[in-house]
């Protein structure tokens, strides 16, 4: 089962920031300039985290991955231009 993750970052280099954002754009929804919501399974997370760490410089940049439980998704609030989208779980059988 996939879980929603909030990915936020503060990246010093424009080039690294652009590469990180480009990679995340293919994986989830941009909800703020440096914040994405992505749905990944537990099995995907080691590879996802490894890829994200490759895209930053740990000495200069900051990356945060935070899981969002179903109960928290139900009560989360968003206002303004960027509104969080409803994430749907898909089952393939």
Write the layout of secondary structure elements.
Layout: E1 2-10, H1 14-25, E2 28-32, E3 35-41, H2 45-55, E4 62-68, H3 70-75
Antiparallel strand pairs: 1-3, 1-4, 2-3
Model description:
Helix content is 31%, strand content 30%. The chain has a single domain, classed as Alpha-Beta Plaits. The C terminus is likely disordered. By secondary structure, it is an alpha+beta fold. The protein contains 3 helices and 4 strands. Strands 2-3-1-4 form a 4-stranded antiparallel β-sheet. Strand 2 and strand 3 form a beta hairpin.
Number of domains: 1
Q: Outline the low-pLDDT stretches.
A: 87-93
The mean pLDDT is: 88
Spatial order of strands in the largest sheet: 2-3-1-4
Distance between the termini: 13 Å
**Helical coverage, percent range:** 25-40%
| Gyration radius from CA atoms, angstroms | 14 Å
**Architecture in CATH?**
2-Layer Sandwich
Main pleated sheet: 4 strands, antiparallel
Query: Per DSSP, what share of the residues sits in E-state strands of 2 or more residues?
Result: 25-35%
CATH class: Alpha Beta
Count of separate DSSP helical elements:
3
CATH topology: Alpha-Beta Plaits
Overall form: globular
Listing every helix as H and every strand as E from the N terminus to the C terminus, the arrangement reads EHEEHEH
């Amino acid at each position: 089962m996939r879980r929603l993750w909030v990915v936020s970052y503060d990246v010093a280099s424009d080039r690294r920031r652009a590469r990180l954002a480009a990679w995340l754009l293919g994986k989830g929804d941009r909800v703020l300039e440096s914040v994405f919501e992505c749905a990944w399974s537990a099995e995907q997370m080691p590879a996802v985290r490894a890829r994200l760490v490759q895209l930053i410089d740990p000495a200069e940049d900051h990356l945060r991955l935070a899981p969002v439980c179903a109960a928290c998704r139900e009560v989360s609030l968003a206002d303004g231009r960027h509104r969080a989208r409803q994430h749907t779980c898909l089952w393939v059988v």
